[in-house]
Every structure is written in structure tokens, then in C-alpha cells.
Amino acid sequence: MKKIIYIALCLIGFSGCDNWLDVSASDQIKESQLFENGNGFRSALLGIYQNLSTEDLYGKNMTWGFMDCLGQLYDPKAITLNGGELVQAQNYAFEHSAVKPVITIIWESMYNCIANCNNVITNIEHASPSIFEYKEEEKNMILGEALALRGFMHFDLLRLFAPAPKAGASGTYIPYCTSYPEIRSPKLSVDDFLKLVIEDLEKAQDLTAKFDTLPDNIKAIQDAFYRVGKANYFQERGIFWSYRGTRMNYMNVTALLARVYMYSGQIDKAYEEAKYLLDFEGLEYPSYSSSYDGNSKSREDIILAFFNKNVTEIFKPWTGENGYLKIRNVEDLFEGETTDRRYSKMTTEIAKGTRISAKYVGYEDPSKERDNGPLIPVIRKAEMYYIACEYFLQHKKVDEAKALLAELREERGNGKPLPELSESQFIETMLLDARRELMSEGQLFFLYKYYNLPIWDGKTNPAITAKFVLPVPASENI
Question: What is the signed CA dihedral for 407, 411, 417, 421, rounded to 10 degrees?
Fold first, then answer.
């Protein structure tokens, strides 16, 4: 597959741009021109983020579309017109003619973005700090973000195309690509693959810390107004330095490490990273019910979000034109707890008896749509709660886990006490809470995969046995 780098000089500020530069092994002159100064590295990096935010990846397939169908979030009877790929995804019909192209585009698009990361990494490692406007500081930040993106994408590919460690993964599955141009890399075992993910993320954590944790800079990731809001904390530096929550930074790399450590069985390390974020100043929940007005994505507790100004338009056909992405058994899921803001503020009744996630429903008020609409939540604080709960469960401290989950529920306006729960009952309750919290964000399938449990939607019907490993596309294009 051809490797491409998006030229984002006109993209800075997240505006549209139609200029593309094809980069192949024989196109060294154009490539050298791209990386002859710091602006070229900025452009290449922002191009990767924009590609990740498209409909092919986190603008639909990897969040509210394909992935949440795998997580059994939606009522299949409500997906009527042109819903073939989504209906068949809920059936785990991976060989269906409507589903195979979706799997292929995810595979090829992710590895294409990884190739572009590798191009940035290969070139920046040999670049002089003098070509960057902010010298070593900027070089380290761009390198840290590229390494974090490489680890992040590889990890999601692993979670799709290989068994979870708890399922007894024993073979070799997919390659971890680190060179550019790519020399065909061998398929790795899950354990060896995870070691490389962690290596990239740990390096990224160290590099991003050099900028993000400085006393004069940390407010840019502490305050949601700057992190994912409408203001640029580094106004004097320009737009490239703004909205750190929509780019890899020290805070969300830490969250990614917590996610990966837990998946790999290193729960003590996972808890250490998650606890840091649970205590992180400024990473809060909306204070009042009214704080969710114009804020259906709950920006205050988002740790990482990608950005696509067209994402509500991509979602719009599923608010009636193509049927509805109706939440499956929503009343059973919330058990009448309508004060829970994840019900009252983060879902909406789009038609009588039809409740959908409100996260991608556009606002008529342009200012509200501008602030809320383009964000694509990828990691939020609640996941750190779930990781911490798992830590307590593994240390046989169910009461501590229960107290943490109750704290999260209360933050969302739900003060109903939890009953006495065994360990298995607690996991079931926590996963149902995650269905409330993470809808439209693509994580439900991965959570059930981690626990190697059938997917249950809160109703008393039999749980749904998922197929947790997707087939690698026949072409294996990278």
C-alpha cells in the first residue's frame, strides 16, 4: 500500500486542506524538502492526527460505528436503511461482504498512519534542534507524540486482531512496524508485541514530560478550557501549541500506559498510572446538571480526544435517515436511575421510545456546536476508575473497588448505593457502568475482551458470546 503524508500547513488550526504529498522509496527529494525545517515536522504530525480522525478510523469505525456494534451497544432492529455493515458487525459476520471492507480499511489506514509516524521518527531522530523554532523542546515534543501515536495505534490493532492475554494467546499474530520505508516485519506473539507498545509509550511519557509538566506549561493540560476547549494557553507561540488534549501529551500518554499495563497483566503498574490521573488537578467532572448543557461529551473529564469538525454530520444519518443507533435495552441498563447524567444529559430521546447517545448529535446553537461537536473522545477519566477497581479486585479488596465505583457514579449524579457484591457480581456491575459511561467511544468490546466474558447488555436475556479476534485481511497490506 502506498505510504502517504498529509501536508498540514493549511491544516494548522484544524481547518480543511486538500494538498497531499505522495511519499515513496524513490521520492527522496520531496521527502527531504518536507523535513528540512520544523514546520515540515509539524505538518506531518498534524496530518497523522487528521487521518486518525476520519470516518475510516476514530471519526466513526473505531468509536461510535463499527466498534460499538461489536460491543453490542445498539438495537439491531433500529438500524434499517444502508446499515448492512453495522448490522452484520453486531452479528460478528466478519466474512460478510459488507464487513470485510471495513476491516480492511481499518487495517490499512492504521498501518498507513503508523508508516507516517515512522517517517517522522526516522527523520527527527537525526534532525538538528536548530531547525525547530523552539529548538530541543519542540523536537522532543514532536518525537514524543509520534512515539505515543505509534504505540497507541499498534495497541488497538493488537486488541482487534489477536487474542487477549487472558484468553491464552499462544501464537504470532501481527507485526510491530518501526522502520520507514517499511521492511516487512515479522508477526509477533502478544507478549513480545506488548513489550514494544510499552517501550514506545514509556519513551513518549519521558519526552512529553519535558514540556507538559513544566510549572509554566502544566495548566494547558490541567484546565479543560485549554485542554479541549476554546482557548490557546500558549497564544504567543501560535496555534500548533494549542488544545493539548487533542494531541498526545504527558497526561494522556500516562492514561495509555495504564490501559496497556492492565491489558498486559501488570496491574500494579497500571494502578500507579491510573491513580496519578485520578488525583490529577483539573481533571474533574461537570459540577451541576446544567454544566452538561452544550456539553454532551462531558469535556471536563476527557483525557484524550481527536478532532473532526464534520463528525456530527457523519453521525447525522443515524439520527433518522438511516434508521437509529438506538441504545440497546437502555431502560434496563439504567434501571430507572434517570438522575444519572449519563442518561439525562449524555443520551437523548430522538423519537418516541428511541434513545440514542447524545455525544454526536449536533447543536443548533453554533457556539455550542463549535465547542462540543468536533471532539471525538478516545480516553476519559472513568477508565482510570475501572483500572483502579481492577487493581483492588486482583488484591481481593472488593469493598475498596466498590467505593471507587460508587464515587464515579456519584460524580455522574447517581447516588444510589450499590448492593453487596461478590467479585464476579462487581465485574458485571462495573461493565454495565462502562456501557453507560463509554457509549459511542468504542471501548466496550475491548473491556469485555479483556475479561474474556460474554457481552451482557443489562437485560435478563442470555449474554451474547462475542468473537473477540478479527481476521487479518487477506492482502495484509502495510
Answer: -50
